[in-house]
Amino acid sequence: MTYALVLHGGAGARLGTDYTEQNQHMQQLTSSGQEMLIEGGFALDVVAWVIEQMEASGLYVAGKGSAPHSLGGFELDASIMKGTDRRAGAVAAIEGIVSPIQAAKSVLTEGRHVMLAGVGAHHAAKLAGLVEVTDPQAYYSEHVSHGSKEDADHGTVGAVALDIHGELAAGTSTGGTFNKLVGRVGDTPIIGSGTWADDTVAVSCTGLGEAFMRANAAYDVSARMRYANVSIGDACQQVLDVVKRFEGDGGLIAVDAKGNICMPYNSDGMKRAAVSSTMDPVVRVFEPEA
Length: 290
Ligand code: ASP
What we know:
This protein is of the alpha+beta class. About 30% of the residues lie in helices and about 25% in strands. The chain has a single domain (about 5-275), classed as Glutamine Phosphoribosylpyrophosphate, subunit 1, domain 1.
């Protein structure tokens, strides 16, 4: 019975900041997610559930913890993808929905389109019965744990999983970058840039979205593994090197079809956690894996 779960709460974590709360939260999610996978839960559902909890916590720059855009409103991005059939769903610049990742999942489930933006995304999420944010200024907790706006770190959330049925899935959700312009859409909802899953690997990225888009980062991990026959670890590192060329700081998490995992970053730290059928849970912000 092979399974694996990796999650991240954003790269660009600042040295000297106390992430105890995030670590405890990621630890709980890792252990609940592990139970779900052992009980036969599907990777897509586990990924969506983990991200939904992170969005609701207000501990990351996603969902409740999102930062406002240049006009003071809140536009969020999310996407999710399933490995075997490459079905995907994404929402860009969505407003007024508590869980953008569930909105993205409902786009996937509905199946007609892959991405919805703005009012259309909100409308579809409402039709799908998702909970709305009635008072945005009161609901969004303004990145409580992330320091001043100038000093704020990337706090996007994401998860990748391999389930015991052999299915891979990946998802990512964000409030975007700090001081972003109204209407700005980053890599997170772009299938292939911020999120990717096929039958080789599932990937979720965090960091400066413009650089990850120019690198088409998430898809490139898979392309390198399939076309150049490199390991998941080498593929992830090579992609981060490309992202760096575009002055992108950040990181990514990945799991392959054999349950090998990888969570590299080129910033000071990345909030991350992982567990698999062959590995005890790991929860970390700093100290890269060997
Ligand atoms: N990648 C996200 C974006 O550019 C930000 C992040 O990962 O924190 O919107």
